[in-house]
Design goal:
The complex is a heterodimer. By secondary structure, chain A is mostly beta strands. Chain A is 0% helix and 53% strand. In chain A, a hairpin with a 6-residue loop joins strand 4 and strand 5. The mean pLDDT of chain A is 93. Classes of the chains: A mainly beta, B mainly beta. The interface between A and B is medium-sized, with 19 and 23 residues.
Chain lengths: 110, 119
């Protein structure tokens, strides 16, 4: 099985930077996804990391350390619309089935 | 192709009734997944198809649940004798053979889901 741990809730101020951490344990490893999900909507793809290091995409960056079973999502210049749940989803080795954590609910306030 | 479509968007049913949901994946995607999501939780994997073959089923998928993908295109998920605990959002996702879908994106496009309420 897989264990995925991420904080349940975080709050931040508009314009600030927030880092959402995720630790995981998998049988082998085939990459890790981050998804954003607004209330009542489908998850949407943010990032995919398979190698160690930081991947930057606009205001969002994702970091991976395979040896530590650790990833984080960094959101810069927060906007109110970034209030959503952020889901960490690793892929086990040889698998094409993402397993999702319970998500981190991010609340951005003015 | 406009993405993954799910029908209906909402379904209210009485306990004990059967319900069926439909998912139309992105046409060139050969993999299709069903997930269930309850409030405050992440999506939980139910089952997975590669073309028409159902390759994996979660232990969450009781005997009352059955899924099909008869021609390797659309899929249906049926729940028989619904229970209140079945109330959830049922999400469908599809992905291509390769994880990389081009243009900096990776597979696993989700549909908007079917919200089931069992009363």
């Amino acid at each position: 099985g897989q264990n995925i741990d991420q904080p349940t809730e975080m709050t931040a101020t508009e314009g600030a930077i927030v880092q959402i951490n995720c630790t995981y344990q998998t049988s082998g490893f085939n990459g890790l996804f981050w998804y954003q999900q607004h209330a009542g909507e489908a998850p949407t793809f943010l990032s995919y990391n398979v190698l160690d290091g930081l991947e930057e995409k606009g205001r969002f960056s994702s970091f991976l350390s395979r040896s530590k079973g650790y990833s984080y999502l960094l959101l810069k210049e927060l906007q109110m619309k970034d209030s959503a749940s952020y889901l960490c989803a690793p892929l086990s080795g040889g698998s094409y089935i993402p397993t999702f954590g319970r998500g981190t609910s991010l609340i951005v306030h003015p | 192709d406009t993405g993954v479509s799910q029908d209906p968007r909402h379904k209210i049913t009485k306990r004990g009734q059967n319900v069926t949901f439909r998912c139309d994946p992105i046409s060139e995607h050969n993999r299709l997944y069903w997930y269930r999501q309850t409030l405050g939780q992440g999506p939980e994997f139910l089952t997975y198809f590669q073309n028409e073959a159902q390759l994996e089923k979660s232990r969450l998928l009781s005997d009352r649940f059955s899924a099909e993908r008869p021609k390797g295109s659309f899929s249906t998920l049926e729940i028989q004798r619904t229970e209140q605990g079945d109330s959830a959002m049922y999400l469908c996702a599809s992905s291509p053979r390769s994880l990389f879908a081009g243009q900096g994106n990776y597979g696993y496009t989700f549909g908007s889901g079917t919200r089931l309420t069992v009363v």
